[in-house]
Amino acid sequence: MAKRDCRAPQEGGEKVRAGVAADAAEIPVAGVALVADLAGALYWPEERLLVVSDLHLEKGSSFARRGVLLPPYDTASTLERLAGVLSRYAVRTVVALGDSFHDQNGPARLAAADRAKLMELQGGRDWVWIAGNHDPDPARDLGGVFATSLGLWPLWFRHEPISQASPGEIAGHLHPVARVGRRCRTLTRRCFVSDGARLVMPAFGAYAGGLNIRHAAFAQVFGALAFTAHLLGQRRLFTFAAMSCLADGSP
C-alpha cells in the first residue's frame, strides 16, 4: 500500500495581476489567463466577464415539495455569496453555466426578497443564463438572456462538458470535488479542474453536492487523469495533480 504524503499541499495558481481579489489565483485555459475566485467563480479580466455554475437555486424548496425538509435559506445564501464575488471585480457580464435553478419551476418559487436581490445583481450588467439539464427552458421574468451555449473566442461556455472537446471549453454539470490527504488526515473540497486546454467549474450553489474527480466521468471528459485540481481553501487555492487525489473509499 502506498504511503500517504502528509506534507502540506502546493499553493495553487500563478500570481494574480492587479485589479482582482488578492486571495484569487490565475488558471490559464487555451492561452487565456482566467482568475479563479475562492467562492468558486471564474473571472476573465479582459472581457470583465464572471462565470458561475450550478447555482441550484430553490433546491431547498424543491426538496420540501417532496417531503424532505431542509432549511429554506439556500437561495438567499447563494445570492449573497454571488453578491460578494461581484463586489470584488469590475464585472460587465455574468454567465450562469446552467442548472441555475434546481428544477424548471424554481423561478416561480422565488421569494420576493430573493427575486429582488437577483434583479439588483443584474443591474448595469449583461446576464446570460445557459440552459442546464435541471432548467433546460427559458424562464419568464428573470432578466437577462437565455442560450444553450456561448462562444467568445477562444473560449466556449456550455453546461455539460463534451468528451475531448476542442480547447477553450468552460463547463459545469459535474460538480467536481477532490479528496486529498493533508497533515495525515483526509479533506474533501470543491475545486476547479483543468488540463490547460479546458476547465470544469465547481458548483456554486449552497446545497449543491459534489462528484469526486477520480470518478470515470472526469477521465472521459479529459481523456485521462492528466489534469489538475485547484481546491477552494479558506484563504487560497491549493493545487493537486488528479492522480495524487484520493478516490472514494481510499484509506
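(the above was protein one; protein two follows)
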Amino acid sequence: MKPLARTGLLLITGGVLIAALLASTSPTGATPASTPEAPRFEVDPMWPKPLPHHWILGMTVGVAVDAQDHIWIVHRPNSLEYWETYAEQQPPVADCCTPAPPVLEFDQAGNLINSWGGPGEGYEWPVSMHGISIDPDGNVWIGGNGRGRRPAPAVPFALGGPRPGAPQTPNPSAPYHDCMILKFTPQGKFLMQIGKADQSKGSNDVENLRGPAKMWFDQAAREIYVADGYGNRRVIVFDYETGQYKRHWGAYGHTPNDEGFGTYTPPTEGDQQFRNPVHCAVLSNDRLLYVCDRINNRIQIFNPQGVFQKEYYYYTRTRGDGSVWDIAFSRDPEQRFIYVADGANEKIHILDRQTMQVLTSFGDGGRQPGEFYAVHSIATDSQGNLFTTETYRGQRVQKFIFKGLAPVTTLDQGVVWPQTAKSPLGK
C-alpha cells in the first residue's frame, strides 16, 4: 500500500484498488524494489493450551512479552455474558464457566504459569482494563478506559430485560473513572499508581490520565510513554520509577485540546488534534515514537521530546473503529518491519519501516484460527513470533509463528493456515 507522508494518499476499502496497490507500492518519489521481501507467518492453532478451572476470557485488550519470552495478556472478566458464566452464579446454574483472573502469564509452550488481578488495598483497579506493558525491570503496568457504570435495568428476563447477572454496560455520557495507570510486580504486588480515579481535568492535566490505552518504555531515560487515550488526546511521559511528570503533546506536537470536531468523514487528512482513542505509542530502537491515531487512520511519528517528524495514512475509507489499532516492531536490530493491528478490517498489515508502505497483509474476519474478530493488540517475542488479542466478542489470544522472510507475491494473504496442515482453503 502507498501511504501518505504529507506527499500523497491512496485509499483502499474492501479490495478496491488492489491492482493499483500492486503496481505502485512505494511513496511518491521513491523507486519501488523489484521483488520486496516481508516476514511470513503461520497461525499456531494449538496455542495457548486450555485454561484450568473452567476459566474463560472476556474482551482481551492487551498483550506484552517480557524478557523471558513469557506472554502476558489482560482481559475484562466483567465483559462476559450471563450464559458464559453459569458456574459463578449464585447458586451455580451449571458446571461451566467462570471468568479467568484479569492478568494471565503464559510460557512459550502455551502453559498458563501465573494469574492475578482485581481490586485490592492501596490502589484503584480500572472499571475497564485496557493495555498491559512490561517495563525494563520486569514490572507489569495496566491501563483502563472505563467510565462510570450504568446500572442494569430492573426488568425481568422473561419480559425482555437482561438475564440475572448480566454485565453492566458502560455509560458513554459518564465521566471517566479510569484516570490512572497501575504498576505491579510480576507476582501481582502493587507498587505504584499514577493518576487518580474520576479526577481528570482534561488533556493538559499533568497529574491524571483519562482512558489510558497503552504504555511503552525508554530504558535509557527511565521514562514511560502513555497513549492517553480514550478521553484525552495526547501522549504523556512520566518517570517510570518515581511517577514524576515529564512532558506531553498532541497531534503534530501541538498543545492538545478537548474541543470536539465532529465525526470522522473519509477521506480526512490533516486533523490538527488526535481523535479518540490515541491507541498506542511505541518507541523504536532508533528513538522514533510511533503513535496510533486510530480513528484518523494514521500513524504520526515524533522524536522523544514530542517534535513531529512525519505522518502516514492507511485505509482512510475505514469508518467506525479506524484502521490503526496497535503497532509492534520486528525483532531484528534495525526493526525493518512494523506490524499494524487493524481491528476494523480484521488484518495484520506488514509495513516496511523505511518507506512505511504496506508490503502485505494477512487475516480475515471470523472465529477460526488465523481469523480475527476485532484484533486489538499485538506484540512480538525474541524469535519474531507474533501474538495478538481480540476485543468485543473475539475474546482470545493467538500466536503466529515467524517463518522467515519471503518474496511478496500478494497484497492480501488471507488466513495464514499452517502449511503442514490440511486446509479446506487449499493453501
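Reviewer note on protein two: The domain at 32-151+165-407 is CATH 2.120.10.30 (Neuraminidase).
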